[in-house]
Amino acid sequence: MTSPQPALVSFQAEPWHGQAHLTYQKQGIKTVPLVKTQAPLKVQTPPFYPEGPQTCHTVLLHTAGGMVGGDRLSININLEANASALVTTAAAAKIYSDHPQQLPAQIQGHAQVGPGACLEWFPQETIVFEGAHYHPHWQVDLAPDATWVGWDILRLGRTARGERFTQGGVRSHLSVFQNQRLLWTDPQQIAGSESLWSSPQALDECPVIGTFAWVGQQPEAAEIETIRELGSTLIQRGVWGATRLQQGLLCRYRGHSSSEAKRWFEAAWSQIRPHYLGRCAVAPRVWQR
Predict the structure, then answer these.
(1) 197 inside domain
(2) Which domain holds residue 106?
(3) Is the CB of residue 118 less than 8 Å from the CB of residue 277?
(4) What pLDDT digit, counting tens, does each position of 243-276 carry?
(5) Is 10 within a domain?
(6) For 17-35, what is each residue's pLDDT tens digit?
(7) What distance in Å separates the CA atoms of residue 163 and residue 266, rounded to the nearest whole number?
(8) Domain contains 225
């Protein structure tokens, strides 16, 4: 007599809530980090100083390998007076769609940048799988004479597998304040559909969109013109633009190559960094892999 097979039990794992609290203090001429994390977020140690002790380079790690619906990351970055930090990620972020819940993967980020301090936020690209939902929300609070520079490079769908972003959605929001006065806000909403994917006024079948911004100081007109010239040289297939903000600079990219967007953003960063920090740009070691 054959024994009955045990019933299969299905269950939904609890969503992750990763946390990273990064505080940077100026001790003499050196910027020193104080780090507290909760899995799946970690920070690569020891901290890196490829350009000397003034600026600390921090690499965030997401040990789960990606996010699904319901997962949350809370990232809090605090720079005390005159500190300087560059924060990046170890690899591209992945937002998966193969989950039963239609909940978004969320990032709640807050950065507080003290007087005379500078935060550079340069994560590697985020790949949003077709059908996934992704909601990143960031608020940046700048003290007088503080600077924030950041970028976001988003790939919609796994184009190497032929995905078109006709399902899913991205809803992002970034606000930058100085002395409690709003300097710049950037809400974006992308609802996956065939019309959005195909329309020349929307994605125009371009899977990569990117934003680079510098907020807290006013660029010179010559710097903006140089960045535009760099765009015309470095971008072959994408649509791009660079403009002055009320107190800063904004670059946009729409195209087919994450690498192309990053090359232009890196070139723009190299162009403006001596203006706001007085030093040449030094790329994090993790980008050289």
Answers:
(1) yes
(2) 17-288
(3) yes
(4) 999 899 999 999 999 999 999 999 999 999 999 9
(5) no
(6) 999 999 999 999 999 999 9
(7) 28
(8) yes
